[in-house]
Amino acid sequence: xxxxxxSDIENLERVPLSERDLAPSTYDALRQAVERTPxxxxxxxxxxAADFRRIYQWTYSELFADITRAxxxxxxxxxxxxxxxxxxxPNLPETHFxxxxxxxxxxxxxxxxxxxxxxxxxxxxxxKATVVVTLAPTAGSDLWPKLAxxxxxxxxxxxxxxxxxxxxxxxxxxxALRAAALKERDLHSGIAIHDLQSxxxxxxxxxxxxxxxxxxxECSSYICTGGTTGLxxxxxxxxxxxxxxxxxxAAHMQPRNSGQVIFCGLPLFHVNGQLVTGLMPxxxxxxxxxGTPHGYRGEGxxxxxxxxxxxxxxxxxxxxxxVYAALLQNEWQGRDLSSLRxxxxxxxxxxxxxxxxxxxxxxxxxxxxxxxxxxACVSSVNPPHGERRMGSIGIRIAYQNMRAVLLSDAAExxxxxxVDEIGLIxxxxxxxxxxxxxxxxxxxxxxxxxxxxxxxxxxxxxxxxQGYFWLTGRKKELIIRGGHNIDPKQIEEALQAHPAVALAAxxxxxxxxxxxxxxxxxxxxxxxxxxxxxxxxxxxxxxxERAAVPKRIEILExxxxxxxxxxxxxxxxxxxxxxxVQQEVERLCLREIAVEVVQDGRRGLVACIRAGADEEDLAxxxxxxxFQVEWLK
Length: 633
Description:
By secondary structure, this protein is an alpha/beta fold. It has 3 domains: 6-449, ANL, N-terminal domain (Rossmann fold, 3-Layer(aba) Sandwich); 478-564, ANL, C-terminal domain (GMP Synthetase, Chain A, domain 3); 568-633, 2-Layer Sandwich (GMP Synthetase, Chain A, domain 3). Helices cover 30% and strands 26% of the residues. The strands form 6 sheets. It has a 9-stranded mixed β-sheet, with helices on both faces. An 8-stranded mixed β-sheet has the order 7-6-5-3-4-8-9-20, with helices on both faces. Strand 10 (261-264), helix 10 and strand 11 form a beta-alpha-beta unit. The radius of gyration is 25 Å and the shape is globular.
C-alpha cells in the first residue's frame, strides 16, 4: 500500500495491529529476515574513508550467526534477562553484534563514547551494569583509558570485554595492538578482561543457550538521552517498541524495493543509527554500509561521501542538519548520484534555506521527520510518495497517535488544540518506552487524556488541516524576554539565509531587566568573510518580530556539537552565563575571581564562583539574575 496522506495511515490502521504478525523481539525480527534472504548482503564495513573500497562484508546468515554467538558469550558471562550489559564503542560490526546479541541475552545499555570518564561511571553505576564492552587499547582512542581510570569506582562491573581493531588494520599495527593489550592486562589483573572475538569463537551460532522466548513487553535496552537541553536520563525500552517502530517506519516508506543500500554515518549509541540504519533496513532485506568507526566524523567521510554514493549505489542515508551543511561544501559534480533517492533528517530542525539549497543543488529529496528516544526513534515523517512540506515534521506513523494539546497551569489536559493552533505535542502508542530508570525523572512525563496515558514530549507544535505537524519550539529552549516567548528557530532561520552563514544558534542570555534577551552564534561557510555588524543589520531586516532581533551576534570558528551532530546549546548558555558574571566582576573592579559554569543534575546550569573578600557585593549583583550561583571556598 502506498502512503501519501494521513488517510492512507488511517487505512493501514483498519487492520488491527495484532494481525500484523510482528516479531515478539528484535532477535526474532532478525531471525525472520535471515529466513527470507539468508545469502543477501546485510552489512558492509570500511574502516578508512581513504580506502573505502576495502570492505568487510556479512550476509544475513553470517550476521545473525555472529549476533547469536555474541548473545551466547554474554550469557556465559552471567548476563540474564533483566541484567545490564553496557557498551562504549565506536561504529563497528562488533557494535551491532553487541547491541542485538546483548538484547537477546539481557538489557543493552548504550553509552556515548564522547562523555567524560566520570559521567560514564555515573551512568554505569546508575544502571547497575555487570558487563561493559569497550574498545581494546588502541592508539588514538581514549575509550579504554577513560574506563580504566574509573574501574575502582564501578562496584557492579564483573567483566570487561574488549573489541579489538586487529581484523581491520595492517600487520604492523596489529602487532602494536597486541602489545598494548598485553601491557594493559598486566596493569589491570584485578578484573576479568576478555576479548569479544575469542569469546564468540567458542559459541554455537545455531541457537540461544539461554533458551529464551522473549516477550514484547520485556526490557531490551537502556538509552541515555538528554538531547540539547540537559544531562542524560536513562530510557528503558522494550523489544516490542523497537520492533514496532522499525515496522511502522518501513510501512511509512511503502512502496519500496527490498535490497536497498543504506548508509550509516550516525553513531550506534544513538537510536537513529541503531533503528533507521540498522534494525529497520534489516527487516526489509536491505544492505547497510557502515562507514568508519567514527561515522560522519571520520576523517575523509564527508569529503568523499559523494564518491561513496556512486561506488556503493547508496539509495538512502540519514543525517542531521550539520551533516547536510557539511556535504554542501564538497564537490559532487560529475558523480553519478542517480541511485540516491531520499535522505532523512531529524534530531534537530532543518533550516529552510539549507533544505532548499540541498535539494536544489543535489536533486536528493529530504524527508524531515521527528522522534525521540522515548518513542523508540520515529514518530512522524514526511511521506516519500506524498507531499513533502518543507519545515514540517510530516504525518504520524501508523498505530501511533500524536496530537497537540493545551494544558492547565497544573499541567492537566484541557483540550485538543484546534487546527493550526499551537499546543504541546503528545504521543501515545506501542512505540512508547516504559519510563526513565530514575523515578524522579518521570514526574510530569505522562498526561492523562480520557484515561489513556500520553507522553509529554516537551515540544510545542501545531497540526494543519491535512494532518502534517509543525514544530514551533521546545518549551525548554524558548527565550522568555520580559514574559514574551521567543522561538529561537525564527532567529536561526533568518541568519541561516545569509549567504556567508553555515550554521546559526540562538539562545537566551541572562538579563537583569528582561530575564533573558536573545543572542545568536553563527559559524561561517568555509572561505566566506562577514562581520558582526553586517549580520546584525541582516537580522534586523529579516526578523519581523522586534523582540526577537538578537541583542548580540558572535561568530565562532565552529559551533559546539553533540556526538550526533546537533548544535549543543547548553555550551552556548554556559558561555553566556560566564560572560554575564565576568561583566559584573569587571563592574566591581574585582580581581582573583574564578568562575566555572557547570551543568548540575538537579539545578541545571550553575555558576560556581571562587571569590575573595568582595563576595557580598558580587553576590548582590548576581542575585538579580535567574541563574543559580554556588560560592566555593
